[in-house]
Write a structure and sequence with these properties.
Structural class of chain B: mainly alpha
Low-confidence stretches of chain B: 314-319
Low-confidence stretches of chain A: none
Bound molecules: adenosine-5'-triphosphate, magnesium ion
Membrane topology (chain B): Multi-pass membrane protein
CATH class of the largest domain in chain A: Alpha Beta
Largest sheet of chain A: 6 strands, mixed
Subcellular location (chain B): Cell membrane
Family (chain B): Belongs to the binding-protein-dependent transport system permease family.
Strand content of chain B: under 5%
CATH topology of the largest domain in chain B: MetI-like fold
CATH class of the largest domain in chain B: Mainly Alpha
Order of helices and strands of chain B: HHEHHEHHHHHHHHHHH
Transmembrane segments (chain B): 15-39, 118-139, 151-171, 183-205, 226-251, 283-304
Protein name (chain B): Carbohydrate ABC transporter permease
Number of domains of chain A: 2
Strand order of the largest sheet of chain A: 6-7-8-3-9-10
Oligomer: heterodimer
CATH architecture of the largest domain in chain B: Orthogonal Bundle
CATH architecture of the largest domain in chain A: 3-Layer(aba) Sandwich
CATH superfamily of the largest domain in chain B: MetI-like
Helix content of chain B: 55-70%
Chain lengths: 369, 319
């Protein structure tokens, strides 16, 4: 049973606030992914949990015990480093046996444990090689193997597959998931690749500038981003955003993109929900994922007319760019739906999947239609 | 491996090989001459024009290791025949080996000087490299207040030519009784080499990713264990390179050895030329002494050559 809890942890590098009042609880056997841009403090947070960095304030609990003042070697966590950190002067076997030797494991047991883990990871044939003679994928397996031999309380992984090529990354992603299901150790995994995060996580933690933005199941973070940062960071292609004005119109609501002549018709319930959060005439931003944008080739009631601009054929579907007012929006369509650039199209939005954000604060208004 | 070469590259390659050969010839010539002289009979060492082809003999080495005196008259046939082969070579040169009353051969000063050189150079190298490595590790891995100033200070100890402080050092050493002791020279050479060792090792340790130690710490090792199990093996190349440089410096040091020592702790460099002064100069003996003196550095460097080559490029090339 290993729960990891962070209570209001803070960390500065000089005047720079790297970890800003982070609180989070990772449950036993949970797989949590830290997702964020480069430099947002993911690695630092992970290193703080492992004890490789001291924190300025707050509490870190591993298995219920406060550990912020204990030393690294006493925390009993495993860490997979971004650059693997395999020792070049040791063979694969010795690299994997290294953590076992720290606790003076009997020789025979070292042998069997390393071989068992190596078999699980399918690197049994590489045990006598040096790290320099391994491919990227094998290095990564060895690095994970070194973390697994010890049965640690928790696994901390810092972009373990970030340096692999796309195909291998996909394979390793599946393998990591399988391993986690088999081993069930509490895992915190760092990445800046949102697809990886969606694929692996029980829960995603989105970080930005040292602050936790949103914590939730991948579907939830995807469907209901709490602010503009999360909205635009999670999901590919990125969520459409546009500055809009809101008006009452013929018994319904009208959402008009800045600079556009026509607006999107919305149910009147929108007006009430916006009013409940603050003045309706403050600057608002509309957010809508490309798959919630519908295009038709014929005029439709309440649809906004425009023309297709760029079409990206992606095989299974197309991404179609078009302009409305000052904004460029994108829609996801069936492959070949829009025959070519310059074709007139009519745009409607899926109201239930549209989001409104307060432009000034970036926070969602929490509209539900 | 064989990359495709253009005609221009082939010509340039040949030119550079020629240049290397010429440089090699120039640098190896004195070493060849010393070696040749070490195996010459005395009368061929100073001929004009120089003798290049001769029958090599071992007599210079016999003379190097024994105490001798001039023969006033040739040895009797009986004495000559009774002498071992090596002693005959001395008789042939017009000298005789000095024996004690009980007939034991008296050694010259060379073996003990050579031993002194070994003791002083090895000990000071071990000290300079180990202290340098630990210091460099500290500077490389921990926040040290005024780190740059400290490092500059350490480097600055090398800016003054050491000979400048020879007289004050001599007076201080005499005051504390360190002159003509092994310890005195060891301290001196360690101090010379330490700044160099710290700087060189810092470069090497900086290149070892910090994550290696982090990984060891996470795996349950203490920092001390991580240092010995990870940092030292990873820094082996740097340690080897540093050790060679320190050893060469200590081994070849002349000025301080000349001033600070005279008998007990005297090293080979001041001793070898001092033989010129006693009696008629015998250049073959000096050459033999020099030849043997060159060997340890050559052997040491040869043993560490792989590390050394890697070390040179390792420290020099930065990503
Ligand atoms: N030892 C340090 N001293 C000073 N600043 C540091 C130190 N380590 C990291 N930083 C800074 O702290 C910020 C967060 O670093 P961190 O490594 O945690 O980012 P990250 O989210 O892991 O980024 P990446 O995705 O690039 O690995 C960065 O701006 C970095 O420059
Ligand atoms: Mg990082």
């Amino acid at each position: 049973m290993t729960q990891i809890a962070l209570h209001n942890i803070n960390k500065h590098f000089g005047a720079f606030h790297v970890i800003n009042n982070v609180s989070l609880t990772v449950e036993d056997t949970e797989f949590v992914v830290f997702l964020g841009q480069s430099g947002c403090g993911k690695t630092t947070t992970l290193r703080a949990i492992a004890g490789l960095e001291t924190i300025d304030s707050g509490e870190i609990l591993i298995g219920g015990k406060p550990v912020q003042d204990t030393r690294v070697e006493e925390r009993d966590v495993a860490f997979v480093f971004q650059n693997f950190a395999l020792y070049p002067h040791l063979t694969v076997f010795e690299n994997m046996a290294f953590p076992l030797r720290a606790v003076r494991t009997p020789k025979a047991q070292v042998e069997t444990t390393v071989r068992r883990v190596a078999d699980v990871l399918q690197i049994g044939g590489l045990l006598n090689r040096r790290p320099s003679a391994l491919s990227g994928g094998d290095l990564q397996r060895v690095a994970i193997g070194r973390a697994l031999v010890r049965n640690p309380k928790a696994m901390l992984m810092d972009e373990p597959i970030g340096s692999l090529d796309a195909k291998l990354r996909e394979e390793m992603r599946v393998e990591l998931k399988r391993l986690h299901v088999e081993q069930g150790s509490t895992t915190i995994y760092v990445t800046h690749d949102q697809i990886e995060a969606m694929a692996l996580a029980d829960r995603i933690v989105v970080m930005h500038a040292g602050v936790l933005q949103q914590v939730g199941a991948p579907e939830d973070v995807y469907a209901n981003p709490v602010n503009l940062f999360v909205a635009q960071f999670v999901g590919s292609p990125v969520m459409n955003v546009a500055d809009v004005t809101l008006a009452e119109d013929a018994g319904g609501a009208r959402v008009t993109v800045a600079g556009a002549t026509q607006g999107f018709a919305f149910p009147s319930a929108l007006l009430g929900q916006v009013a409940a959060t603050g003045p309706a005439n403050r600057p608002l931003t509309l957010g809508v994922r490309p798959e919630a944008v519908r295009l038709t080739l014929q005029p439709a009631p309440g649809a906004v007319a425009t023309e297709a601009h760029i079409i990206e054929p992606l095989g299974s579907h197309d991404i179609v760019d078009f302009r409305i007012g000052d904004a460029t929006l994108r829609a996801r369509t069936k492959a070949g739906f829009v025959p070519g650039p310059g074709v007139p199209v009519w745009v409607t939005l899926d109201h239930s999947r549209a989001h409104l954000f307060d432009t000034a604060t970036g926070q969602t208004l929490g509209i539900r239609l | 491996m064989a990359a495709v070469r253009t005609r221009g590259e082939v010509i340039r390659h040949r030119l550079s090989v020629t240049a290397v050969l010429v440089i090699l010839l120039i640098t190896l010539a004195p070493i060849f001459w010393i070696t040749a002289t070490a195996f010459k009979p005395r009368n061929l060492a100073t001929t004009m024009p120089p003798t290049v082809f001769f029958e090599p003999e071992i007599s210079p080495f016999v003379k190097l290791f024994t105490k001798r005196s001039q023969l006033r008259e040739p040895p009797t046939e009986e004495v000559y025949n009774a002498a071992p082969w090596w002693e005959k070579t001395v008789f042939d040169g017009g000298e005789k080996v000095v024996r004690s009353g009980r007939g034991e051969v008296q050694p010259s000063g060379y073996p003990s000087r050579f031993l002194n050189s070994l003791i002083v150079a090895i000990t000071s190298t071990v000290l300079a490299v180990s202290m340098g490595t630990i210091t460099a590790y500290g500077f490389s891995r921990f926040k040290v207040k005024g780190e740059d100033d400290w490092l500059f200070f350490i480097l600055s100890t090398r800016m003054l030519p050491p000979v400048v402080v020879a007289i004050p050092m001599f007076l201080m050493y005499r005051a504390v009784g360190l002159n003509d002791t092994h310890l005195g020279l060891i301290i001196l050479y360690t101090a010379f080499n330490l700044s160099f060792s710290v700087w060189l090792m810092k470069g090497f340790i900086d290149e070892i990713p910090k994550e290696y130690e982090d990984a060891a710490l996470v795996d349950g090792y203490t920092r001390m264990q991580a240092f010995f199990k990870i940092v030292l093996p990873e820094a082996a190349t740097g340690i080897a390179a540093t050790a060679v440089f320190c050893f060469i410096t200590a081994w070849n040091e002349y000025a301080f050895a000349l001033i600070m020592t005279n008998r007990r702790a005297q090293t080979a460099p001041p001793f070898i030329p001092s033989q010129v002064g006693s009696g008629l100069p015998d250049w073959t003996v000096i050459a033999a002494g020099t030849f043997l003196f060159l060997l340890p550095v050559a052997i040491f460097t040869f043993l560490l050559r792989n590390h050394l080559l890697r070390g040179m490029s390792f420290g020099a090339i930065r990503k």
